[in-house]
Amino acid sequence: MTVKAIQWLLLSHLLVQVSMVCAKVPAIIVFGDSTVDAGNNNQISTVLKSNFQPYGHNFYGGLPTGRFSNGRLPTDFLSEGFMIKPTIPAYLDPAYKISDFATGVCFASAGTGYDNATSDVLSVIPLWKELEYYKEYQKKLRSYLGNDKANEVLGEALYLISVGTNDFLENYFVFSRRRSQFSIEEYQNFLLGIAGNFIRELYQLGARKVVLSGLPPMGCVPLERTTNVLSGGACNEKYNHVARSFNEKLQGLVEKLKKELVKFQLVFSDPYDIVSEIIRNPTFFGFENVARACCGTGMFEMSYMCNKISPFTCSDPNKYVFWDAFHPTEKTNAIVADHVFKTDLAQFL
Protein backbone atom coordinates (compact mmCIF):
# COMPACT_ATOMS: atom_id res chain seq x y z
CA MET A 1 0.00 0.00 0.00
CA THR A 2 1.39 3.42 -0.94
CA VAL A 3 2.02 6.18 1.58
CA LYS A 4 -0.74 8.26 -0.04
CA ALA A 5 -3.17 5.37 0.23
CA ILE A 6 -2.33 4.91 3.89
CA GLN A 7 -2.82 8.62 4.53
CA TRP A 8 -6.21 8.51 2.80
CA LEU A 9 -7.23 5.47 4.84
CA LEU A 10 -6.30 7.24 8.07
CA LEU A 11 -8.14 10.37 6.97
CA SER A 12 -11.23 8.35 6.08
CA HIS A 13 -11.13 6.68 9.48
CA LEU A 14 -10.84 10.10 11.17
CA LEU A 15 -13.78 11.48 9.19
CA VAL A 16 -15.93 8.53 10.24
CA GLN A 17 -15.01 9.19 13.87
CA VAL A 18 -15.78 12.89 13.50
CA SER A 19 -19.14 12.20 11.88
CA MET A 20 -20.01 10.00 14.85
CA VAL A 21 -19.10 12.86 17.18
CA CYS A 22 -21.27 15.31 15.24
CA ALA A 23 -24.27 13.02 15.47
CA LYS A 24 -24.01 12.95 19.25
CA VAL A 25 -23.18 16.58 20.04
CA PRO A 26 -25.55 18.98 18.27
CA ALA A 27 -24.58 22.04 20.33
CA ILE A 28 -22.04 23.32 22.87
CA ILE A 29 -23.30 25.40 25.79
CA VAL A 30 -20.73 27.36 27.78
CA PHE A 31 -20.66 28.76 31.32
CA GLY A 32 -17.75 30.43 33.07
CA ASP A 33 -15.32 33.33 33.13
CA SER A 34 -12.87 35.09 30.79
CA THR A 35 -11.32 31.79 29.73
CA VAL A 36 -14.50 31.20 27.72
CA ASP A 37 -16.34 34.56 27.54
CA ALA A 38 -17.08 35.23 23.86
CA GLY A 39 -18.21 38.81 24.46
CA ASN A 40 -20.99 38.95 27.06
CA ASN A 41 -19.11 41.60 29.06
CA ASN A 42 -19.45 43.94 26.07
CA GLN A 43 -23.11 44.37 26.99
CA ILE A 44 -22.78 45.11 30.72
CA SER A 45 -21.42 48.00 32.78
CA THR A 46 -17.97 46.82 33.82
CA VAL A 47 -14.38 47.92 33.31
CA LEU A 48 -13.44 44.36 32.40
CA LYS A 49 -13.81 44.41 28.62
CA SER A 50 -11.73 43.44 25.61
CA ASN A 51 -13.82 44.62 22.65
CA PHE A 52 -11.05 46.78 21.23
CA GLN A 53 -7.75 46.28 19.46
CA PRO A 54 -5.29 44.65 19.75
CA TYR A 55 -7.64 42.00 21.22
CA GLY A 56 -8.90 39.93 18.30
CA HIS A 57 -5.76 40.65 16.28
CA ASN A 58 -5.83 37.11 14.87
CA PHE A 59 -9.59 36.61 14.97
CA TYR A 60 -11.55 36.49 11.72
CA GLY A 61 -11.11 39.88 10.07
CA GLY A 62 -9.01 41.09 13.01
CA LEU A 63 -12.24 41.73 14.91
CA PRO A 64 -12.09 42.41 18.68
CA THR A 65 -15.15 40.48 19.86
CA GLY A 66 -14.74 40.68 23.61
CA ARG A 67 -12.75 37.45 23.80
CA PHE A 68 -9.74 37.88 26.08
CA SER A 69 -7.24 36.69 23.51
CA ASN A 70 -5.73 37.64 20.18
CA GLY A 71 -8.03 35.08 18.57
CA ARG A 72 -10.29 32.18 19.37
CA LEU A 73 -10.93 30.53 22.73
CA PRO A 74 -10.62 26.82 23.63
CA THR A 75 -14.40 26.46 23.40
CA ASP A 76 -14.34 27.81 19.84
CA PHE A 77 -11.79 25.19 18.85
CA LEU A 78 -13.81 22.45 20.54
CA SER A 79 -16.91 23.52 18.62
CA GLU A 80 -14.91 23.31 15.41
CA GLY A 81 -13.53 19.93 16.48
CA PHE A 82 -17.06 18.61 16.77
CA MET A 83 -17.73 20.08 13.32
CA ILE A 84 -20.52 22.29 14.66
CA LYS A 85 -19.22 25.78 13.88
CA PRO A 86 -15.89 27.62 14.23
CA THR A 87 -16.99 30.00 16.99
CA ILE A 88 -19.54 30.03 19.81
CA PRO A 89 -21.46 33.32 20.06
CA ALA A 90 -22.11 35.28 23.24
CA TYR A 91 -25.72 35.12 24.41
CA LEU A 92 -25.96 38.87 25.06
CA ASP A 93 -24.53 39.86 21.68
CA PRO A 94 -27.39 41.55 19.79
CA ALA A 95 -25.85 40.52 16.47
CA TYR A 96 -27.01 36.94 17.02
CA LYS A 97 -30.44 35.31 17.14
CA ILE A 98 -31.84 32.08 18.56
CA SER A 99 -31.14 30.41 15.21
CA ASP A 100 -27.43 31.09 15.85
CA PHE A 101 -27.64 29.89 19.45
CA ALA A 102 -29.39 26.63 18.54
CA THR A 103 -26.02 25.00 17.80
CA GLY A 104 -24.03 26.64 20.57
CA VAL A 105 -24.15 29.56 22.95
CA CYS A 106 -21.90 31.17 25.54
CA PHE A 107 -23.20 32.58 28.83
CA ALA A 108 -19.75 33.19 30.37
CA SER A 109 -18.68 36.50 31.87
CA ALA A 110 -15.06 37.58 32.30
CA GLY A 111 -14.18 38.19 35.94
CA THR A 112 -16.84 35.98 37.46
CA GLY A 113 -16.39 33.05 39.83
CA TYR A 114 -18.29 30.44 41.77
CA ASP A 115 -18.47 32.92 44.65
CA ASN A 116 -20.95 35.80 44.16
CA ALA A 117 -18.45 38.05 45.95
CA THR A 118 -16.01 37.46 43.10
CA SER A 119 -18.41 38.74 40.46
CA ASP A 120 -19.03 41.80 42.63
CA VAL A 121 -15.36 42.85 42.46
CA LEU A 122 -15.63 44.09 38.86
CA SER A 123 -19.43 44.17 38.55
CA VAL A 124 -19.73 41.24 36.14
CA ILE A 125 -22.36 38.54 35.63
CA PRO A 126 -22.49 36.11 38.58
CA LEU A 127 -22.68 32.39 37.88
CA TRP A 128 -26.28 32.16 39.12
CA LYS A 129 -27.27 34.80 36.56
CA GLU A 130 -25.61 32.79 33.80
CA LEU A 131 -27.93 29.97 34.75
CA GLU A 132 -30.93 32.32 34.61
CA TYR A 133 -29.93 33.31 31.09
CA TYR A 134 -29.74 29.61 30.24
CA LYS A 135 -33.33 29.10 31.46
CA GLU A 136 -34.40 32.01 29.26
CA TYR A 137 -32.50 30.43 26.38
CA GLN A 138 -34.35 27.14 26.88
CA LYS A 139 -37.68 28.89 26.44
CA LYS A 140 -36.50 30.63 23.28
CA LEU A 141 -35.13 27.37 21.88
CA ARG A 142 -38.42 25.55 22.49
CA SER A 143 -40.30 28.32 20.73
CA TYR A 144 -37.86 28.12 17.83
CA LEU A 145 -37.49 24.33 17.45
CA GLY A 146 -40.58 23.01 19.18
CA ASN A 147 -40.55 21.15 22.50
CA ASP A 148 -39.46 17.73 21.26
CA LYS A 149 -36.58 18.91 19.06
CA ALA A 150 -35.43 21.47 21.62
CA ASN A 151 -35.41 18.89 24.41
CA GLU A 152 -33.40 16.57 22.18
CA VAL A 153 -30.81 19.27 21.54
CA LEU A 154 -30.64 20.25 25.22
CA GLY A 155 -30.23 16.63 26.27
CA GLU A 156 -27.54 15.80 23.70
CA ALA A 157 -25.66 19.12 23.92
CA LEU A 158 -22.25 19.29 25.56
CA TYR A 159 -22.14 21.68 28.52
CA LEU A 160 -18.75 23.20 29.33
CA ILE A 161 -18.02 24.92 32.67
CA SER A 162 -14.75 26.85 33.08
CA VAL A 163 -14.55 29.00 36.20
CA GLY A 164 -12.73 29.31 39.52
CA THR A 165 -9.42 31.09 38.96
CA ASN A 166 -10.88 34.52 39.75
CA ASP A 167 -12.18 33.28 43.08
CA PHE A 168 -8.58 33.00 44.20
CA LEU A 169 -6.58 35.56 42.19
CA GLU A 170 -9.22 38.29 42.12
CA ASN A 171 -10.93 37.66 45.43
CA TYR A 172 -9.46 35.44 48.15
CA PHE A 173 -5.79 36.43 47.80
CA VAL A 174 -6.55 40.12 47.19
CA PHE A 175 -9.27 41.05 49.67
CA SER A 176 -9.46 40.15 53.36
CA ARG A 177 -13.19 39.44 53.60
CA ARG A 178 -13.11 35.78 52.55
CA ARG A 179 -9.73 35.17 54.20
CA SER A 180 -11.22 36.32 57.51
CA GLN A 181 -14.12 33.89 57.05
CA PHE A 182 -12.36 30.84 55.61
CA SER A 183 -9.03 29.09 55.62
CA ILE A 184 -7.94 28.25 52.08
CA GLU A 185 -9.24 24.69 52.44
CA GLU A 186 -12.55 25.91 53.85
CA TYR A 187 -12.89 28.35 50.97
CA GLN A 188 -12.20 25.57 48.47
CA ASN A 189 -14.95 23.52 50.10
CA PHE A 190 -17.27 26.53 50.00
CA LEU A 191 -16.68 26.87 46.25
CA LEU A 192 -17.06 23.12 45.84
CA GLY A 193 -20.56 23.28 47.32
CA ILE A 194 -21.54 25.99 44.84
CA ALA A 195 -20.11 23.97 41.96
CA GLY A 196 -22.03 20.88 43.02
CA ASN A 197 -25.32 22.75 43.29
CA PHE A 198 -24.77 24.40 39.91
CA ILE A 199 -24.22 21.03 38.22
CA ARG A 200 -27.22 19.50 39.99
CA GLU A 201 -29.42 22.33 38.74
CA LEU A 202 -28.12 21.88 35.19
CA TYR A 203 -29.03 18.21 35.49
CA GLN A 204 -32.54 19.07 36.67
CA LEU A 205 -32.86 21.36 33.66
CA GLY A 206 -32.07 18.49 31.30
CA ALA A 207 -28.29 18.54 30.82
CA ARG A 208 -26.82 15.04 30.46
CA LYS A 209 -23.31 15.71 29.12
CA VAL A 210 -21.24 18.07 31.24
CA VAL A 211 -17.53 18.87 31.27
CA LEU A 212 -16.22 20.59 34.40
CA SER A 213 -12.85 22.25 33.90
CA GLY A 214 -10.30 22.58 36.66
CA LEU A 215 -7.80 25.36 37.27
CA PRO A 216 -4.60 25.94 35.29
CA PRO A 217 -1.26 26.69 37.02
CA MET A 218 -2.53 30.14 37.99
CA GLY A 219 0.70 31.06 39.75
CA CYS A 220 2.41 31.15 36.36
CA VAL A 221 0.36 33.84 34.63
CA PRO A 222 2.62 36.84 33.83
CA LEU A 223 1.04 39.14 36.43
CA GLU A 224 1.75 36.67 39.24
CA ARG A 225 5.32 36.25 38.02
CA THR A 226 5.73 40.03 37.94
CA THR A 227 4.53 40.45 41.50
CA ASN A 228 6.54 37.46 42.75
CA VAL A 229 9.65 39.65 43.08
CA LEU A 230 11.22 37.74 45.96
CA SER A 231 11.51 34.67 43.72
CA GLY A 232 12.96 36.56 40.79
CA GLY A 233 9.83 36.42 38.68
CA ALA A 234 9.31 32.67 38.99
CA CYS A 235 5.87 31.08 39.17
CA ASN A 236 4.06 31.52 42.46
CA GLU A 237 4.09 27.93 43.66
CA LYS A 238 1.76 28.69 46.56
CA TYR A 239 -0.95 29.58 44.08
CA ASN A 240 -0.14 26.57 41.92
CA HIS A 241 -0.49 24.29 44.94
CA VAL A 242 -3.93 25.78 45.63
CA ALA A 243 -4.91 25.10 42.01
CA ARG A 244 -3.76 21.47 42.20
CA SER A 245 -5.51 20.80 45.51
CA PHE A 246 -8.73 22.43 44.29
CA ASN A 247 -8.59 20.30 41.15
CA GLU A 248 -8.34 17.19 43.31
CA LYS A 249 -11.47 18.29 45.16
CA LEU A 250 -13.29 18.95 41.88
CA GLN A 251 -12.34 15.47 40.69
CA GLY A 252 -13.83 14.06 43.89
CA LEU A 253 -17.00 16.07 43.34
CA VAL A 254 -17.33 14.68 39.83
CA GLU A 255 -17.01 11.12 41.08
CA LYS A 256 -19.63 11.79 43.75
CA LEU A 257 -22.12 13.33 41.33
CA LYS A 258 -21.68 10.52 38.82
CA LYS A 259 -22.93 8.11 41.49
CA GLU A 260 -25.70 10.44 42.62
CA LEU A 261 -27.21 11.41 39.25
CA VAL A 262 -28.46 8.69 36.90
CA LYS A 263 -27.81 8.62 33.15
CA PHE A 264 -25.38 11.49 33.53
CA GLN A 265 -22.07 11.82 31.68
CA LEU A 266 -19.98 14.12 33.82
CA VAL A 267 -16.30 14.62 33.01
CA PHE A 268 -13.57 16.44 34.88
CA SER A 269 -11.17 18.17 32.50
CA ASP A 270 -7.88 19.13 34.14
CA PRO A 271 -5.92 21.73 32.14
CA TYR A 272 -3.19 21.94 34.77
CA ASP A 273 -0.81 19.36 33.33
CA ILE A 274 -0.95 20.40 29.66
CA VAL A 275 -0.52 24.10 30.51
CA SER A 276 2.32 23.22 32.91
CA GLU A 277 3.99 21.21 30.16
CA ILE A 278 3.74 24.19 27.79
CA ILE A 279 5.27 26.45 30.44
CA ARG A 280 8.09 24.00 31.26
CA ASN A 281 8.92 23.17 27.63
CA PRO A 282 7.78 26.12 25.51
CA THR A 283 10.19 25.45 22.65
CA PHE A 284 8.71 21.99 22.14
CA PHE A 285 5.40 23.66 21.32
CA GLY A 286 6.99 26.38 19.20
CA PHE A 287 6.95 29.18 21.78
CA GLU A 288 9.79 31.56 22.58
CA ASN A 289 8.40 33.53 25.51
CA VAL A 290 6.49 32.15 28.47
CA ALA A 291 7.21 34.57 31.33
CA ARG A 292 5.88 37.68 29.62
CA ALA A 293 2.74 38.26 27.57
CA CYS A 294 2.52 39.64 24.06
CA CYS A 295 0.48 42.74 24.85
CA GLY A 296 2.20 45.83 26.23
CA THR A 297 5.25 45.15 28.37
CA GLY A 298 3.80 41.69 28.96
CA MET A 299 4.12 42.06 32.71
CA PHE A 300 0.80 43.39 34.03
CA GLU A 301 -1.42 44.66 31.18
CA MET A 302 -4.95 43.37 30.76
CA SER A 303 -8.24 44.79 29.47
CA TYR A 304 -7.95 48.56 28.88
CA MET A 305 -4.24 48.51 29.73
CA CYS A 306 -3.77 46.18 26.78
CA ASN A 307 -4.54 48.64 23.99
CA LYS A 308 -3.51 49.38 20.42
CA ILE A 309 -1.40 52.44 21.28
CA SER A 310 1.05 50.45 23.40
CA PRO A 311 4.46 50.60 21.68
CA PHE A 312 5.61 47.35 23.29
CA THR A 313 3.05 44.84 21.98
CA CYS A 314 4.76 41.96 20.20
CA SER A 315 4.56 41.47 16.44
CA ASP A 316 4.08 37.69 16.52
CA PRO A 317 1.67 36.36 19.20
CA ASN A 318 2.40 32.78 18.09
CA LYS A 319 5.75 33.01 19.87
CA TYR A 320 4.04 33.78 23.18
CA VAL A 321 2.20 31.47 25.56
CA PHE A 322 0.24 34.41 27.00
CA TRP A 323 -1.56 37.19 25.17
CA ASP A 324 -2.11 39.53 28.14
CA ALA A 325 -1.05 39.25 31.77
CA PHE A 326 -3.79 36.72 32.53
CA HIS A 327 -4.92 35.07 29.32
CA PRO A 328 -3.34 32.69 26.79
CA THR A 329 -2.78 33.37 23.12
CA GLU A 330 -4.93 31.74 20.48
CA LYS A 331 -2.12 29.27 19.78
CA THR A 332 -2.06 28.16 23.42
CA ASN A 333 -5.85 27.89 23.41
CA ALA A 334 -5.67 25.67 20.33
CA ILE A 335 -3.11 23.34 21.94
CA VAL A 336 -5.12 23.02 25.14
CA ALA A 337 -8.36 22.42 23.21
CA ASP A 338 -6.71 19.75 21.08
CA HIS A 339 -5.49 17.98 24.22
CA VAL A 340 -8.92 18.16 25.86
CA PHE A 341 -10.64 16.94 22.71
CA LYS A 342 -8.39 13.89 22.38
CA THR A 343 -8.46 12.94 26.07
CA ASP A 344 -11.28 14.23 28.27
CA LEU A 345 -13.90 14.34 25.51
CA ALA A 346 -13.07 10.91 24.08
CA GLN A 347 -16.05 9.34 25.87
CA PHE A 348 -18.40 11.50 23.81
CA LEU A 349 -17.24 9.89 20.58
Task: Characterize the structure shown.
There is one protein chain. The protein has 349 residues and is of the alpha/beta class. It has one domain: Rossmann fold (3-Layer(aba) Sandwich). Helices cover 45% and strands 7% of the residues. A five-stranded parallel β-sheet has the order 2-1-3-4-5. Keywords: Signal. Residues 1-23 form the signal peptide. Belongs to the 'GDSL' lipolytic enzyme family.
The quaternary state of the protein chains shown equals single chain
Describe the global form: globular
Question: CA-to-CA gap between the ends?
Answer: 29 Å
* DSSP, total strands: 5
Q: How much is the average pLDDT?
A: 92
Percent in strands? 5-15%
Class by SSE composition: alpha/beta
Number of helices: 13
User: CATH superfamily, please?
Assistant: SGNH hydrolase
- Remind me, CATH topology? Rossmann fold
- Strand count, sense and closure of the main sheet? 5 strands, parallel
Could you name the CATH class?
Alpha Beta
Helical amount: 40-55%
- Domains, number: 1
Flag low-confidence runs: 1-23
Kindly report the spatial arrangement of strands forming the biggest sheet.
Answer: 2-1-3-4-5
* CATH 2nd-level architecture: 3-Layer(aba) Sandwich
Evaluate the radius of gyration.
Answer: 20 Å
Succession of helices and strands:
HEHHEHHHEHHHEHHEHH
Family: Belongs to the 'GDSL' lipolytic enzyme family.
Keywords: Signal
Signal peptide: 1-23
GO molecular function, one term: hydrolase activity, acting on ester bonds
